Amino acid sequence: MSTFRSQPVPQASVNMPEASKNVDVGIIGGGLAGLTLALQLKQADPGLSIEILERNEFPAPEAAHKVGESTVEIGSHYLSHTLSLQSLLERTQLRKFGLRFFFGAGHHDDLSMADELGASSFLPTVSYQLDRGRLENDLCRTLADHGVEILDGCTVRNVEVNDRTGPSALHWTGNGKRGKLSCRWLIDAASRSSPIKRHLGLGHKSRHRASAAWLRLDTKLDVEDWSNSVDWLRRCSGIPRMFSTNHLLGTGYWAWIIPLVDDRVSIGLVADPREHPLETFNSFEKIGLWMSQHQPLLARHLEAAADELLDFRYLKNFSHGSEGNFSNNGWALTGEAGVFADPFYSPGTDFIAISNSFICDLVLHGDDDPMQGIRAAVYDKVYQSFFQSTMSLYEEQYRGFGDTRLMVLKATWDYAYYWSVLAWLFFRELLTDIAFLRSAEASLNAARTLNFAMQSAFRGRAAQGILSPGKGRFFDQRAIPILLDLNTALLEPPADPWAELRQNCQRLEELAPMVLALLNGESPASKAREKALLGDLRSRFD
């Protein structure tokens, strides 16, 4: 048994008797990761006793200052289907009109003159824009109905990590009380404070260096107000672009614009510090000045809405990893307590979905399962592979974010890989199928190796730092056959998983040289096959 102590316990609390309690699962942290894990566990086994300790108080403020409003396919499917929250999300949150990217917007007074990458209408697989505060409050009410106790306003003072000689435990203080919680499983969902990870020395620094600043405004922002072009407005089948996660990109940075319920908006800036140091945009005033230089259209909105500022936050070098996330010794990490990659492509809720699913499977199989050690090792290996593949999308690539050709082709590949492998495994509920994961290891490793090779090629182009001025071109993702096919296939009834995986891997092997040929301005090996996978994408660069 080993112990971590975070800070001295106040004397007033020391003099109070310590209340003791035993539960099956103790969760440190009542944010999205901890709350959804508790719900998933309770839905799988209503008999489990679960307690959550959260340092903040509920109800959480809506339009809270947390990052994570934008979800993509894995995270959305987890919330809507795994946790059966679809009706709640449809009623209280916003359906997302995909990820949308603008290149060269900073050079124009009219957004229609920028190059645009996005879908002309909704893709089949649904995703959402989340007000995290509202969702977490709804989850708290749902968990109360399931008998989960949440101790808010509590600080975890130390943890005793189980080595299977006895139960794990944590000691807490709050609201004038102090207590000890013993548990069969101790889960760290405490975001970056991550007491278990720090105690076990699992922290792993990331090579990826990027920083972010973000804010909320109590007013809406509709990017379609930035152009009067009728043709441009008609591109999107009557669906307002404001419901997309809109990205404004340039060399070394990207800015996001995300709508929230009740006509609020989240705005953020993420940048490589070698191009744009955090010190140049780490306050509301500074980010306004920064935008006036790089994205004047957005700067004007910030200036006009200054009185509507709800909050402002920033974070330096946000990426981090962990040497381990799951153990057969009764502890695990989830959410940002374990790893965090980058908000580009909005993968945060995906990581929560996957780590929570692994943890749920470990808890449900019980301590006496002879496969428990193997499960924990396999899940950690798969999770680390997912994290490394995701990090490869960002490392040394920010310098190319203003390059239309690069980013259109990179996004096409990145989407195809994500929907062919990572999302496919989750939607087919194969992530916890040990037999399948073992038998598919060679195929999955081959796809992973191919992805790393593609990211290396993108990295080489990104190093050139090409900045596209924008020509008003539209790259419609619905007109790229392989993307529409892969997104649609996620919702199809499971067939033969081996046949599906083989087909997905074969198409990735075909797609890779086509994307590289387009990137390098070379002719296709087969015009017919390129058209079958990419449609008229080549002509759209003209």
Low-confidence stretches: 1-14
N→C terminal distance: 65 Å
What coarse outline follows from CA principal-axis ratios? globular
In the CATH hierarchy, what is the superfamily of the domain at 1-63 and 132-202 and 321-367?
Answer: FAD/NAD(P)-binding domain
Tally of strands: 20
The CATH class of the domain at 1-63 and 132-202 and 321-367, by name, is Alpha Beta
Radius of gyration: 23 Å
Q: Tell me, rounded to a whole number, the average pLDDT.
A: 93
Task: Please render the helix and strand layout as text.
Layout: E1 2-5, H1 11-14, E2 19-28, H2 32-44, E3 50-54, H3 73-82, H4 86-92, E4 94-95, E5 99-103, E6 115-118, E7 128-129, H5 132-145, E8 149-152, E9 155-161, E10 168-174, E11 177-188, H6 195-200, E12 203-205, E13 211-217, H7 230-234, E14 245-250, E15 253-260, E16 264-271, H8 284-294, H9 296-304, E17 309-315, E18 320-322, E19 331-333, H10 348-365, H11 372-391, H12 404-427, H13 434-439, H14 441-462, E20 474-476, H15 481-489, H16 497-519, H17 527-534, H18 537-540
Summarize this structure as a short list of keywords or feature phrases.
single chain, 542 residues, alpha/beta, FAD/NAD(P)-binding domain, eight-stranded mixed beta sheet, globular, disordered N terminus
Q: Any overview of this molecule?
A:
The longest helix has 24 residues, at 404-427. The chain has 18 helices and 20 strands. Residues 1-14 have low confidence and may be disordered. Among the domains are: 1-63 and 132-202 and 321-367, FAD/NAD(P)-binding domain (3-Layer(bba) Sandwich); 73-131 and 207-315, FAD/NAD(P)-binding domain (3-Layer(bba) Sandwich). The chain has helices at 11-14, 32-44, 73-82, 86-92, 132-145, 195-200, 230-234, 284-294, 296-304, 348-365, 372-391, 404-427, 434-439, 441-462, 481-489, 497-519, 527-534, 537-540; strands at 2-5, 19-28, 50-54, 94-95, 99-103, 115-118, 128-129, 149-152, 155-161, 168-174, 177-188, 203-205, 211-217, 245-250, 253-260, 264-271, 309-315, 320-322, 331-333, 474-476. By secondary structure, the chain is an alpha/beta fold. Strands 1, 2, 3, 8, 9, 10, 11 and 19 form an eight-stranded mixed sheet that branches. It is 39% helix and 20% strand.
